[in-house]
Design goal:
Strand order of the largest sheet: 3-4-2-5-6-1-7
Number of strands: 29
Number of domains: 6
CATH class of the largest domain: Alpha Beta
Keywords: ATP-binding, DNA damage, DNA repair, DNA-binding, Helicase, Hydrolase, Isomerase, Nucleotide-binding
Strand content: 5-15%
Largest sheet: 7 strands, parallel
GO molecular function, one term: helicase activity
Domain Helicase C-terminal: 260-412
CATH topology of the largest domain: Rossmann fold
Pfam family, one: WHD_Lhr
CATH architecture of the largest domain: 3-Layer(aba) Sandwich
Distance between the termini: 60 Å
Radius of gyration: 30 Å
Family: Belongs to the Lhr helicase family. Lhr-Core subfamily.
């Protein structure tokens, strides 16, 4: 540290009073960290500030020391709460309480925690005798604002600290909190706002999100300072694709996997062994469980931590890691948000971290001896993964971080907070409520007409009354019940508790989709890194009872959660890498020489970059155009068309939906799609050629993109699912549903011209799509800046999408018990057999009762279609004399099914009885040569999994 920095540090602590400085000396805080040096003086002066720094650099003390000082130096203690410390996770509440208790005892300050698990006795006590500092969550603040005694306690608030504010800024929870803070301001008047954030690419936006917008009653009330610690200079990354060794070949047998995956496991195990405490971050809970099971097989001292484990299991593994009883911890984003697990020496990221901010936040957890460098290793699996990780690592060092995607003008949040405002006071003028909401940054551009439409929708749902003559919003009979049922903006989704029958303890949860799609008695899955066999499923109690087993393979649970989207900037840099390497390969340069150029710029080793470059070299050998940052290459074969486009998840999703809708419209066919950051894969009828996609890209008017997308979304499962969630937050589901289920199509029709529908469309656009960048892309195609090319055949890069991005540790083979369970399930499924020769005979029966070669008992024909048990409309379509387009399509499908049954008998009936397996996929499954009958069912299982993963893309 330089002399000037040391002097600044001394000045930072001299901004605090005697009591706090004495406590600092007692605690051993002799020299402040960089965030403390720079932020304590303005915070001690009462200014609003956003402090941006890695986890472990003393951010909590940076914020709280000036707050403690302000409270401790008061001449007279007020009745109420002086400061709120708001965290997005209950687990952080527990951590903060433990970290702040010492300061409270030393400075004679009362510090307490309040959240959903706080007992009624403790809540009453806090209302009667409020603490000086209360640690809480955004949702609990919502509830506190409506209590008479607590509102009195909140009137003395002078400081608000929002921890992990970057996380809240990009969610509806955060938009809700900003209005909650304005409601709090109505009670307490202006207060100091302090935000603690990980590195983010839009500090000004996040700071405005925190402090709100005018009008202000005090000078500087909405002003802020940004204190940002340069993270890029204090992190070091290594990106590695492990080389397969003879040891990995031997290890593969023990792990029941292939040698490449064994090399990943070995590399991570070696990194854990080389350090005292290592966090191993993965991108999904599935991977956490699968990797954990591999280490358990090897007897490695490595635990698993993610949000679907029980609270007790999470706390236990956190405490064991902190105590040094566990060498490594495999974790998901559950460990990103600063939960205290003690000192971390090294961070491993398994697979590309997908975003710059995520890599910085995760690796930033390591190190932190004063001004020490945080070190992390990214273990990659294929060329896409490697190039992406290299781009992210380079951008992280240069500080090129993604912006926070704030939810501007979210109408279900608005609905929720209008009810909150009415709950606070019983009634309020509509004008006053509108102006209050507009002070929150995400609603600063809200129009009065939108506000009134939302209020009317709430009135229609009987959640409040609108008195237009008096311009009043008033409580109704449904206000109270709605508000307390909707304190959170996190959508309600069904989860099943998993209970170990032997110990009678809950071990975790599974989401409904996994239970419906895969969970059957007898099936095996992994949770907490251990193998479990399902004994029974209680749907009424939403409970799965399991027993532990020893087995090397099993299905990994599928939890709710979206894939982390790769931003456009990262995908474009991968495209730029191809731009640099491609011409060199085309001119005859060797892989080694091209790789050498990249070694100088990116943090990797020769083997890793050479492995990745070999894909580009193979592509160059074909003579086909290379997809780059400014070239889109379309290729296809049979029923598959691939649009190679380096524009990231959201632009590719937007482009894919547009192409799927417009090509489908032109050809009168259904077009399915699957997206990754570098290519869009389409499933098309045989008559559709790649050139059809080029024509749409060239001819689509950029000005019409938003309208076309909204039309394309109308019948999608994505919009219907989102609409149901939004409708629940408006209290509209109850109105339409009553005591019965109300179908998604009818709900869509009922809500189409309401704010509920508008918000569902806005959310899908915000969450999944990127219309502005897609419009800009189409304009660049129009101007010739982006080249469009068609490959004559499938290319190495186009085909690479089939293997990239997969869950590398999910077992390829199911064990014998799972195969038997699938066989039995399909045998018990019902099908309709329908004679297409006479068209008179139909029979509904179980698959097990179908003969080896089905034949019509009336006419003797073997041309028998095998249909799903609910496919009566297909039978009607075949028999119809005057068919419409849809009936023609059904008829063709029935004849394809009959041809397959005529050729392959009962085997075809079995294949088509599986979920998501139509005649086309059944034919592919049947056509494969295989020695083992079990492999036939393994292929069926693979197709069912593929259908479950991609079902949302088939509109």
């Amino acid at each position: 540290m330089s002399e000037s920095e040391a002097a600044t540090g001394i000045r930072a602590f001299t901004a605090l009073g005697d009591a706090v400085r004495e406590a600092l000396s007692e605690r051993g805080f002799t020299t402040p960290t960089e965030p403390q040096r720079r932020a304590i003086p303005p915070l001690a002066a009462g200014k609003n500030a956003l402090v941006i720094a890695p986890t472990g650099t003393g951010k909590t003390e940076t914020a709280m020391l000036p707050v403690f000082n302000s409270i401790a130096e008061r001449d007279e203690k007020p009745f109420g709460i002086s400061a709120l410390y708001i965290t997005p996770l209950r687990a952080l509440n527990r951590d903060m309480r433990e970290r702040l208790d010492w300061w409270g005892e030393t400075l004679d300050l009362d510090i307490q925690v309040r959240h959903g698990d706080t007992t009624q006795y403790q809540r009453s006590k806090q209302a009667d005798d409020p603490p000086d500092v209360l640690v809480t969550t955004p949702e609990t603040l919502q509830a506190m604002l409506t209590g008479k005694k607590l509102r009195k306690a909140l009137a003395d608030i002078e400081h608000i600290v929002v921890d992990e504010v970057h996380e809240l800024a990009s969610s509806k929870r955060g938009a809700q909190l900003t209005v909650g803070l304005e409601r709090l301001r109505e009670v307490a008047g202006p207060f100091q706002r302090i935000g603690l954030s990980a590195t983010v690419g839009s500090p000004e936006e996040v700071a405005k999100f925190l402090v709100g917008v005018g009008p202000s009653t005090e000078p500087g009330d909405r002003d802020f300072e940004i204190v940002e610690v340069d993270v890029g200079s204090k992190v070091e990354f290594t990106v590695t694709h492990p080389e397969v060794t003879p040891e990995d070949e031997r290890l593969a047998g023990k792990l029941a996997t292939d040698a490449e995956i064994a090399s990943h496991v070995r590399t991570i195990r070696e990194l854990v062994a080389d350090n005292e405490s290592t966090l191993v971050f993965v991108n999904t809970r599935q991977t956490a469980e699968a990797l954990g099971s591999r280490f358990k097989t090897l007897g490695a001292n490595i635990g698993v931590h993610h949000g679907s484990l029980s609270k007790e299991a999470r706390i236990d593994i956190e405490d064991r890691f902190k105590a040094g009883d566990v060498d490594g911890l495999i974790c998901t984003s559950s460990m990103e948000l600063g939960i205290d697990v003690g000192r971390v020496d090294h961070v491993v990221q398994y697979g590309s971290p997908r975003e710059v901010a995520r890599l910085l936040q995760r690796v930033g957890r390591a190190g932190h001896r004063r001004d020490a460098v945080s070190r992390g290793t990214v273990v990659t699996s294929d060329p896409d993964d490697t190039f992406e990780a290299l781009a992210i690592a380079r951008r992280a060092v240069d500080g090129d971080v993604e912006s926070a995607e704030i939810h501007h003008g979210s109408l279900d949040v608005l609905a929720n907070q209008i009810v909150g405002v009415v709950m606070d006071t019983g009634e309020m003028s509509a004008r006053g409520a509108f102006e209050l909401v507009r002070r929150a940054y995400p609603f600063r551009e809200l129009e009065e007409e939108q506000f009134r439409q939302v209020a009317q929708e709430l009135s229609s749902n009987r959640l409040l009354w609108v008195d237009e003559e008096k311009d009043l919003l008033e409580k109704s009979g449904g206000t109270w019940q709605y508000f307390y049922a909707n304190l959170s903006m996190i959508p309600d989704e069904e989860t099943y508790e998993v209970h170990d029958m032997s110990s009678r303890k809950q071990i975790g949860t599974l989401d409904e989709r996994f239970v419906v799609n895969f969970a059957q008695p007898g099936e095996v899955f992994i949770q907490r890194g251990e193998m479990w066999r399902i004994n029974d499923i209680d749907d009424e109690e939403t409970r799965v009872n399991v027993a532990p087993i020893e087995n090397p393979a099993g299905e990994v649970p599928s939890w709710t959660g979206r894939e982390i989207p790769v931003p456009m900037g990262v995908a474009q840099e991968v495209g730029e890498m191809r731009n640099v390497a491609g011409p060199q390969f085309e001119s005859g340069a060797s892989v080694k020489s091209v790789a050498g150029d990249f070694l100088a710029r990116y943090p990797t080793d020769e083997h890793t970059i050479t492995e990745a470059m070999e894909l580009l070299d193979r592509h160059a050998e074909t003579g086909e155009p290379l997809p780059t940052a400014d070239r889109i290459v379309v290729e296809g074969q049979g029923r598959q068309v691939v649009v190679n486009a380096c524009f990231g998840h959201q632009v590719n999703e937007t482009l894919g939906r547009l192409l799927s809708a417009l090509v489908g419209q032109r050809t009168g066919s259904s077009v399915g799609m699957e997206v990754n950051p570098y290519r869009i894969e389409f499933e098309v009828p045989p008559k559709v050629r790649p050139s059809a996609f080029v024509e749409v890209l060239e001819s689509t008017d950029p000005d019409h993109v938003e309208g076309l997308l909204e039309l394309a979304l109308k019948n999608s499962d994505t919009l219907k699912f989102t609409l149901a969630q939004v409708a629940a937050k408006f209290g509209a589901l109850k109105r339409y549903q009553g005591n019965n289920r109300f179908g998604a199509d009818r709900l869509l029709a009922a809500l189409e011209d309401t704010p509920v529908y508008d918000e569902a469309v806005r959310e899908v656009f915000h969450r999944d799509l990127d219309v502005p960048n897609t419009v800009a892309l189409l304009r660049r195609i129009e101007s010739g800046e982006i080249e469009l090319a068609v490959a004559r055949e499938r290319t190495p890069i186009g085909v690479a999408g089939r293997s990239s991005g997969r869950e590398f540790l999910v077992p390829e083979n199911a064990d014998a018990s799972v195969i038997e369970a699938i066989r039995e399930r399909i045998r018990d499924d019902r099908v309709i057999l329908f004679c297409l020769h006479c068209t008179d005979w139909t029979r509904k029966t179980k698959v097990r009762r179908v003969s080896d070669q089905p034949a019509c008992p009336d006419c003797g024909s073997t041309r028998i279609a095998s249909l799903n048990p609910w496919a009566d409309e297909v039978v009607k379509a075949v028999r119809s004399k005057n068919k419409d387009d849809e009936q023609e399509k059904m008829t063709r499908r029935a004849y394809k099914s009959a041809n397959l049954v005529q050729s392959h008998g009962k085997r075809a009936v079995v294949a088509m009885a599986a979920r998501g397996v139509g005649p086309h996929n059944a034919a592919r499954i049947i056509a494969k040569l295989r020695e083992d009958e079990d492999d036939f069912y393994r292929d069926i299982l693979t197709q069912e999994r593929q259908y479950a993963r991609t079902q949302s893309f088939w509109d």
